[in-house]
Specification:
The chain has eight helices and nine strands. By secondary structure, the protein is an alpha/beta fold. The protein has one domain: Rossmann fold, CATH 3.40.50.
């Protein structure tokens, strides 16, 4: 029987993930350019051009804050993150003390309603079990006053993918539609990215999306 996914992420399995993904902004950009022909920060600028640079932003599942550092490099300053992995949070405190990163779970975000202007995930919803996804989406939307931003693996319907030898750790689906079907949100922008490398199956596609609350 598999252990609880949160136990895996907060143990040696999660520590190995952190070591693999200990990237600088330049390295994150280079990987994105190799995979999709466009850098990570270029994609962020494309999607977040209408978001004020003084917006208060939360990343759910931030690990050591590489995506937050990418945002910082294009002018955002009020950057927060939560992660369930103690090792990642401690490493972020040591190496990126300018970021506001604390321990926290996606299904119980430790902030007040509407505390942030924008809440986002980056390949994190794919690791939430389908039976828990609605709770996590509820928490994301609860904590934002205006924007929801995401970057996740895409499939037309829920599809489980084995992840590093483990079952029940990765699912891809149409995450933008999950938000739009559950909440009164507007789709501002959506784009699909096909991999130009052979590191994943040929049918692997990423979706990046920006949603907005209509009253904002």
């Amino acid at each position: 029987m598999e252990r609880d996914p949160e136990d895996l992420w907060d143990g040696e399995f999660g520590e190995e993930y952190t070591e693999r993904n200990d990237l600088s902004v330049q390295e994150a950009n280079e990987i994105s350019e190799q995979r999709f022909g466009v850098s990570r920060t270029e994609r962020m600028e494309r999607f977040l051009g209408s978001v004020d640079r003084d917006a208060r932003i939360l990343e759910v599942g931030t690990n050591i804050g590489t995506q937050l550092k990418c945002l910082e490099s294009i002018g955002f300053e009020n950057l927060y993150g939560i992660d369930i992995q103690k090792n990642a949070v401690q490493k972020a405190h040591r190496t990126r003390p300018e970021l506001n990163i604390i321990e926290g779970s996606a299904d119980d975000i430790p902030f007040k309603d509407d505390f942030f202007d924008l809440v986002f995930t980056s390949v994190v919803l794919i690791h939430i079990p389908p039976e828990r996804i609605e709770t996590v989406l509820d928490e994301v939307v609860r904590c934002t006053s205006e924007w929801v931003y995401g970057y996740e693996y895409f499939a037309e319907e829920y599809t489980e993918v084995q992840y590093r030898g483990h079952d029940e750790l990765l699912w891809k689906t149409d995450f933008p539609s999950l938000y739009l079907e559950r909440f009164d949100l507007e789709l501002v922008e959506k784009e699909f990215f096909e991999y130009q490398t052979d590191e994943y199956d040929n049918d692997t596609v990423d979706v990046e999306f920006l949603l907005r609350t209509p009253e904002a």
